[in-house]
Structure formats: C-alpha cells, structure tokens
C-alpha cells in the first residue's frame, strides 16, 4: 500500500507545471502571520518542467528546511510563491545566498525572501550599465589628461626647459 502511494505521488509530481499554474497547491499548515513569503522567478517554460523540478529547486536552495509551495504562476516566466516559518528566515537567507550561482544556472531571474532580495538579474543589469557609464567617463577624462600631458611635453620641449 505504501509503495502504491509512493508510485502515485511520483507520477503526480511528474505532471507538467501548466497543470498547476494559477491554482493554489495547498492550504498553509501554519498561519500567514507566522510565515514569510519566498518568491522565485524562473526562466522556465511550464510545459518543460514538472512539480518535481520545483521540489528539486527547493531542495538545492534550502536543503531540508520547511518550505511549502503555495502557488505557481505563468507568464513570460514561472513565478513560484512559497512560505516558510519566520524562525527559519536567517537560515534560509544564508543558504540561498550560498546557492545563488547554482540557482542562476537553473534559470533564476530573481529570488526574494521576505523583504530581502537575494538576487535580481534586472537590478544587476542596471548596476552594470551604471558602472559602464562611469567607466566611460573615467576613460574619457584619462584620454583628455593624456592629451593635455602630451601638449605640455611639447611646450616644454619647444621652450627647451628641462
């Protein structure tokens, strides 16, 4: 009987995510007042991934902590909303930060735990653009200073000052 249940559960978890999109997966076993929201945004096509994919993602992210998947939403990406008890937040944040590179390889666009953004691809893109503009300004100033330096050397050579 247990083997039959496990087989049925495994088959259920292999259903494509399109089946679960925009439907609550479960009622929380604890109150929202004692839980914190965790939100993954992933570059996933729902027809290519299953509930098992999300379970594997949660396992790789948080190991064996008590995180419950509540809703999966579909759009240009997959949004997975989870909840976990408040007392686990520090542990979840540390573990998620340690695993962010692996999550990026799995298609992570952003990860927010509570009010803390662990990773946001778009924010990093904006920061890179800002740093590139600053680098261009510094390089331009450097070029101007090098040109001015060359003119001063020419003037010194013309005047014969050593």
Total strands: 5
**CATH class value:** Alpha Beta
Helix content: 40-55%
* CATH architecture descriptor text: 2-Layer Sandwich
Secondary structure category: alpha+beta
What's the overall geometry? elongated
How many DSSP H or I helices? 5
Question: Which stretches are low in confidence, meaning pLDDT under 50 for 5 or more residues running?
Answer: none
Q: What is the fold-level CATH name, i.e. the topology?
A: Alpha-Beta Plaits
| Computed CA radius of gyration, to the nearest angstrom | 26 Å
Strand residues, percent: 15-25%
**Spatial strand order of the main sheet:** 2-3-1-4-5
What is the end-to-end distance?
A: 97 Å
Coiled coil: 128-155
Keywords: Coiled coil
């Amino acid at each position: 009987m247990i083997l039959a249940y496990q087989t049925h559960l495994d088959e259920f978890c292999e259903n494509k995510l399109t089946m679960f999109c925009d439907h609550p997966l479960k009622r929380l076993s604890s109150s929202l007042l004692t839980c914190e929201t965790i939100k993954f945004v992933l570059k996933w096509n729902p027809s290519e991934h299953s509930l098992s994919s999300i379970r594997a993602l949660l396992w790789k992210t948080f190991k064996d902590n008590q995180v419950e998947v509540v809703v999966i939403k579909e759009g240009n990406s997959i949004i997975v909303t989870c909840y976990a008890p408040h007392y686990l937040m520090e542990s979840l944040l540390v573990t998620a930060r340690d695993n962010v590179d692996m999550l990026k390889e799995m298609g992570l666009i952003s990860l927010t735990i509570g009010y803390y953004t662990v990773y946001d691809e778009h924010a990093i893109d904006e920061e890179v653009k800002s740093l590139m503009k600053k680098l261009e300004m510094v390089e331009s100033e450097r070029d101007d200073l090098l040109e001015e330096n060359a003119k001063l050397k020419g003037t010194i050579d013309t005047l014969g000052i050593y």
